[in-house]
Amino acid sequence: MSNDTINQFINLSKKYFKIYLGISISVFLFILFFQPFPSHKFEFENKNLFTAGYGLIIFVIQVIVQIIFQRHLLRNNTDEEYNPLLNLLYYFLQIALTSVAFVFYIRYVGNTIITFNIVLRVVVISLSVPVTVHLKNTLLLMHGKYKKQLEDNRLMQDKLKQFSESYANKFIELDSENESDNIRLQVSEIIFVKSADNYVEVGFRDNEVFRKKMVRNTLKNIEKQLKEFNNFVRTHRSSIVNIQYIDKLNKNFNTYWLTLVDTKEIIPVSRQYLMTVKDLL
């Protein structure tokens, strides 16, 4: 057995030891209090020792099954491709080995005649093993996904913060056919751009006051200028909006529009760009 295999076994054992021990103790206590199997042939101390044997059997079998399915458990542990057949076999072997071991233990150590009723009880108790392991694995998987989602959200927030800081003080000059009408604005202050015949209407903040200005240009040309800044999105053939100022997406029958922060302006949203806008909200 290589050092890698031994290390893998140790790491898996650390992960599953508590659940093996928990199942073993739970089964021991269940059998001790509810006595589903005959044990009247033993004295009190020997009866407790005999009952503890059930817990020991479960613990040993869990370790044996772990060794057999070590590669499968490692793949699950590293989020590699899920193999439902191996997973089913893993749980089935737990039930089968536990049931067989219990039957032999009751028959040859407990000196009890095996009946159908006893076998049925054995199988039911044996089912608790894979069910508990499966629930534990499912909870671990959900917890892992939740942690990953939180981490992804944190990274996204960090990126948005970096993005905001990066462009907060950056300026852009929106070109006009008449150079004297060019408008130089801070990128973060631009709220929207609307097409208006041969002009575009630019909505922006100026010292916290909402203002608008007409620039003789096409929306297509302005869109090219704003392309390097990811906080602008096309919502309609006639409008572009800064996503930082989107307040709400509204709907009335088949009509969609955006309301913006700090302004009463309404920005139309066409079906062509609807999904893009929804993904950003």
TrEMBL record:
InterPro entries attached here? Answer: LytR-like (IPR046947), LytTR_DNA-bd_dom (IPR007492)
Q: Which PROSITE patterns match?
A: HTH_LYTTR
Highest rank taxon of the organism: Bacteria
Keyword line:
Membrane, Transmembrane, Transmembrane helix
Locate the HTH LytTR-type domain: which residues?
183-281
Indicate yes or no for the key word Membrane: yes
Molecular function GO labels: DNA binding; phosphorelay response regulator activity
Q: Where are the transmembrane segments?
A: 19-37, 49-69, 89-108, 114-135
Q: What is this protein called?
A: LytTR family transcriptional regulator
The organism's taxonomy opens as: Bacteria, Pseudomonadati, Bacteroidota, Bacteroidia, Marinilabiliales
